[in-house]
Amino acid sequence: MSQREILSITTGRPTSDGAGVSLTRVFGGAAPERFDPFLMLDEFGSNDPDEYIAGFPPHPHRGFETITYMLEGRMRHEDHMGNVGRLESGGVQWMTAARGVIHSEMPEQEQGLMRGFQLWLNLPAHAKLGEPGYRDFAPAEIPQLTLPGGVQAKVIAGTLKVDGIEQPGVVQRPDTEPQLFDLHLPAGSGISPQVPEGHRLLLYVYEGALRLGEHTLGKGQLVRLSEHGEVRLHSESGTRLLLLAGRPLGEPIVQYGPFVMNSREEIEQALRDFRDGTLA
C-alpha cells in the first residue's frame, strides 16, 4: 500500500483567547471543512503567569466537544451541571457540549509553566442538541506504551494499532471515531500506526523534528494527510507529536464563536437561547 500524501503543511499563529490567555492557534477559523471532523486546535505554553493567569471565565458552548490535554500545570473546571474537575499535568478533560454547557477553566497556579492543548471535535447533526456531558481523566488512567525502538505512546482516544499491538484509549466516540495519540519518538526511531481508511489525519509536531517521506517537519508545524494509504513516521533527531484522526462528517459547518451548528438559523437560535438563559 502506498503512503498517505501530504495535502498541506501549515504553522500556527499567535493569538489570545478567554480573558487574555496567550496561545498558538494551530488551526481553526476559515475553511473548517479541511479538517472535518476537527474544528480547532490550540497550543498554550508559558512560564509567564501574565500570559495565563486570567484563564477562561464562564462562557458557553453548543454543538461540539472539547478535549483539553495538559502537559504541565493545573487547571480547574466548573460548569452549570455542577461538575468540578482538577486537570493536572498529563491529564485529560473531555467535555461534550451538545445542546449547551456554560463552564469556566481557571489556573490553579500563580507561577511556573502551564502547557497543553485544547482540541474541538465536531458533533454530527443528530447529536448537536443531545445531552451534555463531562469527564476528566487522571494521568494514571491514560494507557502508556513503550513500543519497539523506544517509542512512547499515550493513547487518549480511539485504539492504537501498531506492530501487532492494539491498545484502546480512555475515550471511544461514535460517528467521528476519533483517534488522539501523544507520540514520543527517540532519535533514529520510527512508527507506522494503522489509521482507518477514509479518516482525516493530522500530525502536529510540538517538539523536535519529524520525517515524513521526503519532508521534514519542525516544531510548530501541522501536516494534513490524504485519507488513504499507510502512515510511516520517522525521526532522526527525536520528536514529540500529536496524531489526530477522525471520520469526516461531511455536514455543513456554521460557526459563530463558541457555537458550531449546521445552519445560520441554528446559530441564531443558540444566541437567543443564551441570551434568554435557556441554552444550558
Automatic annotation (TrEMBL):
Residues 23-121 form the Pirin N-terminal domain. CDD domains: cupin_pirin_C (cd02247), cupin_pirin_N (cd02909). Residues 1-14 have a biased composition (Polar residues). Residues 1-20 are annotated as: Disordered. GO terms for molecular function: metal ion binding. Fe cation binds at H59, H61, H103, E105. Keywords: Iron, Metal-binding. Its cofactor is Fe cation. Binds 1 Fe cation per subunit. Coiled coil: none annotated. Residues 181-279 form the Pirin C-terminal domain. Belongs to the pirin family. This is Pirin-like protein.
